Hints:
The protein is an alpha/beta fold. It is 26% helix and 25% strand. The longest helix is centred in the N-terminal third of the chain and has 14 residues, at 11-24. It is elongated and about 75 Å long.
Amino acid sequence: MQNRPVARIHLDAIQANLELARQFAPRSRSMAVVKADAYGHGAVEVSRLLGDVDALAVARVEEGMSLRAAGITSPIVVLEGFIDNEELEALRIDRLTPVLHSRYQVDLLKASNHVDIPVWVKVDTGMHRLGFSVEEFRAGMTQGESLNVIGVMSHLANADDPGHRENLDQIDVFMEMTHDLDVALSIANSGAIINYPSSHLDWIRPGIMLYGCAPGAQPDDRLKAAMTLTAPVVSVNRITVGESIGYGSTWVAAKDTRVAVIGIGYADGYPRELPEGTPVLVGGQRRGVVGRISMDLTFVELDAGDQVEPGDTVILWGRGLPIEEIASLHGTIGYTLMSGLTGRVGREFCRG
């Protein structure tokens, strides 16, 4: 056994979550989001798994190029488009479909003599991150530009909160802007797929839900966890009442006890800021983190009856321990934990 953390990637769960997205929107095509190494799950392996999806989506040109280099032939949409002529040429060579969100991209495309490249256009309906303004779009941003526009998309800022009033406002703005266009339309990310049927339109873009994490703060039992993060027990130490452990001596034993030292730390992506008591699964039972998480190691207090030895495996999140719960204790979201795992964490792909 190697002394390293391992993220077990449940391929069957990803497939099941895609099918759930399709059930929510049976008349829509699916653009599976595999940016950021498929949210830490392995973009190449996930893209191969989803070979029958209508399209894949990445954030950056380099991500799309990496998939092509790995032999992925599915249509690939680059959500941030291109930033210069070099990226535009790479898009053309690797048959990647850019999303245009700014005037400078239109100018670069026109000057390149490659206006035949299929493109999506992004409009800003309220998130104010990327996209042409409503005014630019209504003024005919793409009219008369001789561009090969195959679709128009936008992005909801609050889809993870089904009660937020701006969701319906953004959908209404998008529909009003595009009602007379003869191109594909897309605004539904994971939260909208689940919460807003009116947003499904021609294309849905499932992202976080593919990986079994709910778009909001609470777990969704309909989604299947696609990542189980594990780490080995490196040592089991006996701690006497009054003794402290770890950097800063922040935890002092209130009784004679045993502490398992786990081979994972913040250099692996397990956050240093997680509070004392953060749960892990030891032999299927919840036990709490104690002391300060260090670069490579984490302490877990054991119960008297726990039979634990070096080489045993502890679960940090995943099946039996929702990542949403761990993220909440850190004051963040599951996306952050998944995508924040470093290269020191191994990946094992499995079914079942």
